[in-house]
Amino acid sequence: MTILIDKIALIHLDNGRILSTRSRGKDVYYLPGGKREPGESDTDTLVREISEELAVAVRPGTAVHVGTFQAQADGHPEGTVVQMACYTAEYEGEPVASSEIAEVVWLTYADRDQVAPVDQLIFDDLHQRSLLR
Question: What is the mean pLDDT of residues 3-20?
Answer without folding.
Answer: 97
